[in-house]
User: What shape does this take?
Amino acid sequence: MTSQGAVLVPLDGSDCATAAMPVARRLAELLHATVILLHVGSDALVPAALVERMRLSGEDLQGLVIEHRPGAPAEVIVREAAACRAAMIVMCPQVRADVRSRTFGTVAEAIFRSAPCPVVLVPSARGRKRWELHQLLVPHDGTPTSAVTVGPATDLAAMAAAELVVLHVATPDREKPVEPGTLVVPRYADQPHHEWTAWAREFVDRLRAVGGARNGIKIRLEVAQGEAGAAIVEFARQSDLIVLGWRGALERDRALTVRRVIRDTACPVMVLRLDRGNER
Amino acid sequence: VAHVAVSNGGIPANDLVLSPCTDAGWLLIEEGLSPAREREIESLLAIGNGYLGVRTSIGGRFSHPATFIAGIYVGDGDLGPRLAVFPQWLNVAVTVENEELTVETGRVLLHRWLLDLSKGVLWREWRQQHPSGRITRLTCFQLASLADRRLLLQSVTVTAENYAGTISVGMHLGPSGTHGNVENVEHADVELVAAEPGAVLLRAVAKDVGIAAASKMHGPGAASWKDTIANGEERCSWKTALGQTMRLDRILAVFTSRDSASPLTAARQHLAAVCARGFQAAIADHVDAWRRRWDSADVRIVGDKAAQHAMRFAIYHLIAAANPADECVSIASRGLTGEAYRGHVLWDTEIYMLPFYVFTAPEAARALLMYRCHTLDLARRKAQALGYQGALYAWESADTGDEVTPQSAVGSDGRPVAILTGQQEHHISADIAFAVWQYWRATADNAFMAAEGAEILVETARFWASRAQIGLDRLAHVRRVIGPDEYHETVDDNAYTNVMAIFNLERAADVLAMLERNRPDDWQRLSERLRIDAKEPQAWRSLAAKMVTGFDRATGLFEQFAGYFQLEEIDPAAARNWAMPIDVRLGAERVRRSRIIKQADVVALSALRWKKWPVAVHEANFRFYEPRTAHGSSLSPAIHALVAARLGDLHLAQTYFRQAAEIDLTNNMGNAAAGVHMGALGGLWQAAVFGMAGVQLREDGISVDPHLLPSWSELAFPLQWRGRRLRLRFEAQPRRIEAAVEGDGEVTVAVRDGPACCVRSGQNFALQDDGSGWGHWEEAGR
Assistant: This one.
C-alpha cells in the first residue's frame, strides 16, 4: 500500500458515522495522506452546519478537509474516491444482524461493491476513542488468490511498526479449496517438532511469494479451528485491524465469512477486493 | 498424477550434448511458473547422488534454493544440528546488454522444468521477454554425477531471438552465490576462506570442515572471461548476432575436508583430470551409471500409468540419496532434497528405505549399516547415560550419532511441548538389528556379519537384556517406551518394541552360535573384544522367551501396549473431514486416552515378521488396527498397502498405495516443500515388491505371493540375491510368473500355494495358473 493523497470518509450526517474518524486520521498519518470528510446529499450543507450536526469540535477538524457534493451518495462517493485517487475509504455503515440477509444498507453496499480502493469498515460502537495500529490480523484461507491481502498488510505493518499476524482457520467438513497452489493445514503432522514447523514455514513462504509481502516484515502464523468467521472475530479481540480479502460477491449464502466478520467484530476491517488483484 | 506430461515438452537437444528422454513415463514436468508451489517443485525436482543434493530454483523471492553435502551439519542449538546450506553453485545469472534476466522482470513467454528420471538430469527451458523487448531463450541441463559423485555438470545454451548484443553469463562459487528469498535462506552456513581463479575454499560456520569448489566453464571461442576472485564469481561475455545460439558447458568439482586433507588442491586436481577427459565423457559416465542403476532397480508396472510414474519417482530419489562409497553418512528423512528434519536420520532409513538398497544395491545398504557401526560408540554412551548396557541408538542422529532429538519444541498452539521420542523411542535399536539381519540374509555378506554386523547385534541385544525387567508375573517387560504409534507415549510393553527386541535377542544369540561354529577365529576375536560372557547368548534366548508381546491366542490379536484395549474408542474415520491433524484437533491428551493410533505399529510387525504367525493372525490384527489408524505419519500408508496386498484386500491396497504415492507428487501432507519423504518412497517400493509381488527371503532364495492391484496387468523388477540378479515378472490374467537369473549360481523361487523352482544362471522359468491353481514351472524363452 503506497502513500496516496487522500483517505475518504463518507458522512451521512449522523454523528455515529464519526466513529470512522479516529481510524481514518491514524491511517492517513501512516500514509501521509489527507482525510477528506465527504458529505453527499440534496441538502447542501455548508461545512459549518455539517460540523455542528455531527458534533465535531475544532480539535476534531485539525488537518481535515470537509467537502459536500450533491447527488446520489454511493455514486458520488465512488466517483470522488477515484477522482482524488483515495488510498482507502473509511466508513462506518449500519450492519444488519442477520448474516444471511443483506449486510449493509443500499448506499453502503453500493460503495462496498464499487469502491476503486480498499474500504475500511469501522464498527460504530467503538465511538470516537483514539485508535492506534499495533497489530494487524490477516485471515488467510491458504489460496493464492487470498494471499493478495498480505502485500498491503505488510506495507501498513511497516508504516505503523505493527505486528502482523496471519490467521489460518481449519474448518471441519469444509472441502479444501481447489485453486492450484492452495496450502491448508495438513491432515497429518509427523514428528510435530519437525513437520509442523516445516508446514508453518512453507505456509508463510507461500504467502510471501504470492502476496508480494514486503521483505523484512515478520509474519506470525496462528492456526485456529472452527467456523472461519467466528474464529476470526474471536482472535481479533486482540487486534487493531483486520485485513480481509473479498472475492466480490455479496449475494445470499456467499461471502459468509466476510459478512460474519463485519457483523460481529468490534475491530475495524479493511476489505480488499481479491478479484481485482493487488491494489498496491 | 498431475505432473505427468505426454512428451518431453519439445526441449531441443540439437545444441546440447545430451537430450532428455522422450518417454513420458520417465519424466517429471512442471510447466509454467508457480510462485505458490515453487519450493515444493524444488524438492520434487532435486538432483543428487548421495554426496551432493541440489534444489534448483527459478531464483528471486519465490525460491528456497539450497545445495547440501551429506554429513556436513551446522548449528547445535535447541533443535540440534542441521544440514548446512551451501552456495547455489549451479545458479546461472544471465545479463543481456547489462540488464539482468529474471522471471520477475518483463514477461515469461515460456518456462518448463523437466526432470529426466532415467538419467538423473534436470532440464530447464525458459523464454523471457525483457521490458526492452529483447527475447532470450535459455535451454539448460544440470546433474550431480552418479559416476563421479564429486562432480556437478551443467550446460547452458543462450539464444538471442530478436536482437544482437552483448550477453554475459555468471556463476558463483562463493557464499554470495546463495540467492532466493533472503528470509528463506540460511546465509550464515558457510564463510569464504580463500578464493582464486575458478576455485574457492569455504568453511562451515563454527565447524572445522572445509569445503572446496573448483569450476571450469567452456564457452564460445570469441567470449571474454572474467574471474571476480573475491567472491568466487566466474563470468563469460560475448557479442551475439541476431538469432545466434551459444553454448557453455561447466564442470564443477566439490571436495570437503572429510574427503581430503587439502580439499582445495583435491578439487583443482580432480577438475583438471575430468577436464582432460572432457565434458562429454563426464556426461556419458553419468548417463551410463544411471542406466546401470535403473537396470538393477526399475519396477515396471503395466496398466497403471500413475502408479508407474510414482514408482519411478520414488526409485529416482532413492537412487539419488545413497552413496555406497561413504560409510560415515546415512540418509536423512528428506534425503538431500530439503531442510525438514534438519537432515536428521531416524528409523525410516533402516525399516523403510534400506530394503530397497539391500535388494537393488547391496553396497549402498552396507554403507548405510556401516554408519550405524561407526556411531555405535555414541549408542553405547546413550544407553549408559540412561542407566542401561549395550547400545541404544539415537532416535534422531546427524553426523556423529549423538542423540539430537530436541527435548522440547513449540507446539501447533504456540505452547511448549516436551519431546519424549529421544528418551523413550527405543525400538530403533531393534530396527537396526533387524536391518543388519535382513541385509546379511539377502547378501550372505559373511565378512560384514562376522565383524560389524555381529557387533551391532550383540550390543543392541545387551541393551534389551538390561532394558527389560522381570515382573512379579515372571515375564519380561519393557516399560515406559514409545512405539511407532507416537500418539501414545510412556507406555508399557509396546508389542512392536517387544517383538522386535525378541528378534534382536534371538538373532544376536544366533550369530554368535554361527560364528563359533563356522568362523571360530572371528568368534574368538569378537568375544574378546566385546567381552562376551559364555552365558550371555543363553540369557538372551531365555529373556526373549519370557518377553511379553501382548498376543492373545484366543483372539489372535496383539494388544498394542499394556492397557490399550481399555482405552476410549474414537473412530478416526470421523476425523477425515476435520481439516486438522487428529492429535491437534482432539488434543494430545485426549488422543493418548483413545485407541486412535498414529501409524502402522502392530501392522508394521505383520509387514516385518510375516512368516512368524499364520495369515489369520495378520488378518485379525490388520482388521482391528487399520480402522483405528489415523496415518499421522507419511510412513503409514505404504506399509498398510503392503499388508493389505498380502492379505489379498486389493481395494484397500490400492487406496493406500495411491495415498503413499501422492505424498510428494500431490503434496498431500502439505510439507513436500521441505524435501521429499524418503521413508514413504522406500515404503512405496516395498509395497510393490513385498506386498503386490509378495517377495520374502528364504534360505535358498525367495518366495513370492503375487497380488497385483486391479489396474495392474503386469509387474516386473530385478532383485539382487547373494550376488545373483533375479528378474521377476508377474502377469495378472492369466496369472503367470517368470523368473530369470543372471550371475553365478542359482536361486530358488518358491510360490505360496505353488511349487518352487531352482533357477540357474542364464535360465528363465515360467509358472502359470490355468484357473485351477498354479501349474508347473517350465523353461521359457528369454
